[in-house]
Every structure is written in structure tokens, then in C-alpha cells.
Amino acid sequence: MSNRVSNPSFAFVASEIDEARDALTRLRERYGGIGPDDADIIVALGGDGFMLETLHKYLHRGVPIYGMNRGTVGFLLNAYGEDDLPARLARAKPVVLHPLRMTAHGAGDGTTTALAINEASLLRQSRQAAKLRIGIDGVVRLEELICDGILLSTPAGSTAYNLSAHGPIVPMGSSLLPLTPISVFRPRRWRGALLPNTVRVTIEVLEADKRPVSATADFTEVRNVSRVEIQEDSSISLRLLFDPEHDLEERVIKEQFQP
């Protein structure tokens, strides 16, 4: 497998739920393992939320992360199993993800930059709907959108919040990013857009004092934003490992045929 060393060392990390902590104890007793800052592969035990946390935490290391599900849905994880783990890691297939980079400008001069592996979203903060202006690569494409919010998703995140907001599922290799509104009031017929992954999306908050809006990139939230810029950061590559029978591309396709 490319970018993989022979006989790689691996480390276990786990979420705080009992199932994950118990699994961590058993796996360490059986396989040992070293610290995550020194390992060639990190094995994450938990749910999808913990997998996202692990990807963010060890982003600087650039090592593959192999998840085993000890949570609920486990879309980004493999099935849990304690047998033959080194062999599973050796035959696992890598999937490369590029995060979104969100730059949020506050009502004053403050600016916050954060990465999103699933999606970057804007949401109304009060009882009043948000009023937004949407620009793509410097061109205003929607002068005024009245809604509860809007989100830009990665392909990997298109089955998460994006799908709940009735956005399209995007195959991993499609080089597309879904831009999906949340509870649109005006214009009623606008249901979002599929955009090339090379674009820069700019969202301006209109009447920000009257209709405050927050912006979120995965776990980072910024309140009272005035403008948000989002684009894929292709300079950052995240590597997830999947068992051949639990290929992420296949999961994304299968999700589109769920009843």
C-alpha cells in the first residue's frame, strides 16, 4: 500500500463511552501499542464524532487513521473486531479526504479560521430567519436568501447534516461540494447547488444586528458573523483506512438507495 511502512507501529485512542474504554483496555492488553504521537497508524475506538475529533487532533501528524465502531452509526468507521488486527491494518484501503477551510469574520474586526471535515454551516441565532447573500468566486449568485441557515459539505460529510437538510449525497471521487440551504423561506424553489471543489463560497449576513447568525466548522463555532468564506483546502490530506469489505465509496453509493 502506498505511503505505508512495513510492520507499522500503531496506537489506540478511545472516546469516553464505556464500550470504547473497555475495548481500549482489551486491545492494549492483547497488542500493546505506543503513544499516538509516535505511531505509524492510529486506531480510533468510538463513534463518528470521535473519529472527527481524532482526525482534527492528529491532523499535524499526517498518519493514517483506522476507526473501529464503538458508537452508534459508525459511517466513518470499520466494524469492531479484536482478532488479527495487524493483518486487517495491512490490507486496509486508504481514502484521502480534503477538509474545508472556513474563514469567519465577526461583527467587529475579528477573524476566525477553522477546518471542517464534514461541513461548514451558518445558522440563525434568534427567532428571526437569517438573511444571506451568496457569492461564488466573487460573483453574487443569490442576492437574498431567507432561511434558517446554509451549509457547504465535503463528499464524506454529504451523508451527515447535509443529508438531513435534504441535500444530495456526493460520491467520494466526484470533486463536487453540495451547497444546501436549511428551511428556505425565500426563494421557495431554491434547493441548493452542486459546486466544483475548486470554488470559493462567500456568504454575507444581511441585517446582521437584527438577524444574528453563527458559523460552525465541525467543532468550532463563531457567533455573530458578518461574512464567511469557505473553500476546500487541497493542501491538507487526511487518510482514513477501511477494510476492503467496508469501503467508504461503497457506503456512499449504498446510502443513496436506502428506503
CATH class of the largest domain: Mainly Beta
Strand content: 35-45%
The end-to-end distance, rounded to whole angstroms, is 36 Å
Oligomeric state of the chains present here: single chain
Morphology call: elongated
Give the biggest sheet: 6 strands, antiparallel
Under CATH, the homologous superfamily of the largest domain reads Probable inorganic polyphosphate/atp-NAD kinase, domain 2
Strands of the largest sheet, in order across it? 6-5-16-13-8-9
Number of strands: 17
Arithmetic mean pLDDT: 92
Could you say what the CATH architecture of the largest domain is? Sandwich
Backbone CA Rg: 20 Å
Q: What is the CATH third-level topology name of the largest domain? A: Tumour Suppressor Smad4
Helix-strand sequence: EHEHEHEEEEEEEHEEEEEEEH
User: Any idea how many domains?
Assistant: 2
Question: What does this entry look like structurally?
Answer:
Strands 6-5-16-13-8-9 form a six-stranded antiparallel β-sheet, with no helix packed on it. Strands 12-11-10-7-14-15 form a six-stranded antiparallel β-sheet, with no helix packed on it. With 259 residues, the chain is α+β, with helices and mostly antiparallel strands. The protein has five helices and 17 strands. It has helices at 18-31, 48-57, 85-91, 161-164, 248-255; strands at 10-14, 41-46, 65-69, 93-97, 100-106, 111-116, 119-124, 130-136, 139-147, 149-153, 176-182, 193-196, 200-206, 213-217, 220-222, 225-232, 238-242. It has two domains: 10-97 and 237-255, Rossmann fold (3-Layer(aba) Sandwich), CATH 3.40.50.10330; 100-232, Probable inorganic polyphosphate/atp-NAD kinase, domain 2 (Tumour Suppressor Smad4, Sandwich), CATH 2.60.200.30. The chain is elongated and about 60 Å long.
